[in-house]
Amino acid sequence: MEKLGFLGLLRMNNHHRGTEFAEFGVISKNPSLRAVSVSVVQSPNRAFMRIFLSSIGLLFVVAVGCATGDEKLSGSNQAQQRQSKSGPVIDYPSLIKSLRALGAGATASGDVEQPFFSITGIMIKVHGEDVQVFQYANAAAADAEAAPISRDGMAVGRRKIFWVGPPHFVKQGRLLVLYVGNNDKVLKTLEAVLGQQFAGP
């Protein structure tokens, strides 16, 4: 979070008795906060000065809230920005490239088979968790294999599957990706790279 600082409040008397000056501002690199700066104001009325200073304090609180919101939005978009720089995911090599661009590791650990898929997949490690990747000849073949999978991922056609953890199926082009587990970091990374799951809890 960006550090904010006050330029400060200044009160001083001039040659006219009872007249006060006040100046307030914010030190920030954020353009929206740099705008929160008030020119010198003078008033012979102390009550007015108190109201003025209270209003400026409220303005500062609102500005800080806006800066925090922008910061959160920026953080949520970082993964998508990094992924977009690595290019679209169209096959296994581009998937690995995108995952590594996000710092997910994505190292192959062997082959994997599922009785309901017609091809052998590759097991990779994403943030230390096993993720199964199945690459088909084309998107139509991947769609055909994905079609019988139930919405909750607990059955494929009439075959009921007893998973060791919650299944998450994701499809992108000619890729079918399966993650069995509940690691939030892995799920967010897969969603950032491949989009939302089509089957799973």
Description:
The chain contains five helices and eleven strands; from the N terminus they run E-E-E-H-E-H-H-E-E-E-H-E-E-E-E-H. Strand 10 and strand 11 form a beta hairpin. It is globular, with a radius of gyration of 28 Å. The longest helix has 40 residues. The strands form four sheets. Strands 5-6-7-11-10 form a five-stranded antiparallel beta sheet. Strands 1-3 form a two-stranded antiparallel ribbon. The chain is of the alpha+beta class.
Supply database-style keywords.
201 residues, alpha+beta, five-stranded antiparallel β-sheet, two-stranded antiparallel ribbon, 36% helix, disordered N terminus
How much β-strand is present in the residues? 25-35%
Largest sheet: 5 strands, antiparallel
Beta strands, count: 11
Helix content: 25-40%
- Terminal CA distance reads 34 Å
Rg from Cα = 28 Å
Would you list the SSEs in sequence order as H and E? Answer: EEEHEHHEEEHEEEEH
Unreliable residue stretches? 1-43, 55-76
Side by side, the strands of the main sheet go 5-6-7-11-10
